[in-house]
Amino acid sequence: xxxxxxxxxxxxxxxxxxxxxxxxxxxxxxxxxxxxxxxxxxxxxxxxxxxxxxxxxxxxxxxxxxxxxxxxxxxxxxxxxxxxxxxxxxxxxxxxxxxxxxxxxxxxxxxxxxxxxxxxxxxxxxxxxxxxxxxxxxxxxxxxxxxxxxxxxxxxxxxxxxxxxxxxxxxxxxxxxxxxxxxxxxxxxxxxxxxxxxxxxxxxxxxxxxxxxxxxxxxxxxxxxxxxxxxxxxxxxxxxxxxxxxxxxxxxxxxxxxxxxxxxxxxxxxxxxxxxxxxxxxxxxxxxxxxxxxxxxxxxxxxxxxxxxxxxxxxxxxxxxxxxxxxxxxxxxxxxxxxxxxxxxxxxxxxxxxxxxxxxxxxxxxxxxxxxxxxxxxxxxxxxxxxxxxxxxx
Length: 394
Ligand SMILES: *Cc1c(COP(=O)(O)O)cnc(C)c1O
Prior knowledge:
The protein is built from 14 helices and twelve strands.
């Protein structure tokens, strides 16, 4: 990243912290052992894996034996949903979720539906939140799993997970939450959330890409994912990616230690940005409260988000139309659609997600660039409409 780049897409990914990277490096070279080997080269690697497991457990209020390393947040979500559905198939085939989940959850659920499972997708209100009452009312005797994200990646809405999961638990239903966006931004504790399973991913909190974890509460059943060696209690075989796991441990330790401070910093940037956006005509904010401190989703009426993002990129400002996973496709955001935005509004919406290295100056430069670009794009559009009307008059 050059210094001129203004990176406002931290919900898509974050840069790996240099301290985290430095901790990882020895495990590519000197300490290259297979963490499952019994000799001293291997023992050094397993010691690092165990230390990282303790850090992840500590960060979310779990036991080290309840942490399973995976290759990413997507894998954690896929495994949690398919693995619990299969392990509890004798009990029932109904799953409760929301209509704003990440594609890693949505597509896992769709696959189960194709296999005869029934999924209830709870609607969300204009702020992007599900209702506790509606969730409780949708729980049935054959419900085996409730999976609801802690915080949304496109608009930042924080779901009432703790209340919903308490009700689920009282009914003996297994609970899973995708906390990938939440770690480092808001407090995340599996006990407070009443979560039996929780997904997280290192690259969303200044760790490396390609490593995540699944928390699985002791006593909760899951079908194994990768069949091979005895890694991860024989549920997820495969040689440990020691450098990445070390990076995850270092990153989550730093992210939880600085969570409060980070949240205050992000919230003040967001407040400054939102105050400036309110001065721009035909601009509306999506989402409401409670929401992640650093995520802002905005609709700029009359402007195509692809054109706006392209113009911002030319100015060196990186933002996104929402989930990076679907921005390459023409499918309109299912999250904004579920919140009640029209197709036109969805196509005019942009997500800005702040990170710890962003400053007030960066916010001000972004606002100035936005004003210029919007004036230009809207003038172009007015000229176009004018010409069209002129032609009609002829
Ligand atoms: C990024 C993200 C994922 C996917 O994590 P990867 O590690 O990129 O696979 C899942 N859920 C949410 C909410 C995310 O933001």
